[in-house]
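If it is no trouble, can you show me the amino acids of a protein and the tokens describing how it folds?
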Amino acid sequence: MPSPEEFYRIKRLPPYVFEEVNALKARLRAAGRDVIDFGMGNPDMDTPAHIIDKLVETARKPRTGRYSASKGIAGLRRSIARYYDRRFQVKLDPASEVIATLGSKEGFANLAQAITAPGDVILAPDPAYPIHAYGFIIAGGVIRAVPAPSPEAYLSGMGRAVAHITPKPTAMVLNYPSNPTAQTVGLDFYRDAVAFAKKHDVWILSDLAYSEIYFDDAPPPSILAVQGAKDIAVEVNSLSKTYAMAGFRVGMAVGNPRLIAALGRVKSYLDYGAYTPIQVAASAALDGPQDCVDEIRAIYKSRRDALVESFAKAGWVIPSPAASMFAWTEIPEEYRALGSVGFAKKLMEEADVAVAPGLGFGEHGEGFVRIGLVENEQRIRQAARNVKKMLSRRNAA
């Protein structure tokens, strides 16, 4: 029997960078170590009660356990359109410009499947959330990774890339607020991106999964708020972080009707949509009281502040993220020779603290780690005390 590595698409995927770190975490926990885990962006808050109540109520009704709809039930698609109108002042046709997805990740991956021919060139940021590159790679595309130390550098880098790429790229990826870097942009950036995409005849796939996790006064905008953006752009979003519904696997893809139709065609062959009670609960989340979103955002902000303050006192200065549920920071100078994977392992072994190595997000993530705001403030401060002891031992050696 052939090994999995011999299959065509598997061969296109590199070894999973996080696997080595996750294996060490499992060994330490099996040995009784209390590892404080900032590695995975897995929300730990309770899903708001009114959403759970609607899920349970709907699950008790006859026939809700039958197949659902791959595009999402009509009620949820209308709720998504209302959310975009209310939040972004963007008008959407629920029938032709909205699809309910199994989380934003599934939506993005199947969009890549829908629009990518073998050999198509895609512009993607580096560092980036892995699906932004590997969704296209699995589909047979070729990624041109563009360094993204800042949004402006990324956009200018795409200009240079287009001038030197043959064949010309077919799509470009945007993700703001960014995972992993937590960078944000305003509408002026999106206007420039839309102008660029139209000039070079490329599609835009925008990932807005952290639209509601922001800490400044100005909430992150949607690219679809730019005039003419729907001509060339589609956006994915998610209820996972906004409503602490990560395990529900429910999100959305909205925008250009051609791209939405292509996604719907692919999904019609692959799935029957999420469990109907989950979709009804998602409608309740989007249409119901939004004070729960404010509360969740406030928890992340408080954790961010605790992380930045306590780690600075420990001797590790972490830039304060303006949005998302992550902090993106350089490895302490005295450990940079280890690289991000080596440092992440050492941090676990010596401080019982788990982080995500930057190399897992691309070549230009090396030298950095991502820290998830997924532990409470007490645990964050305990992690800072552990880090302080580790750094003190290093400096005393």
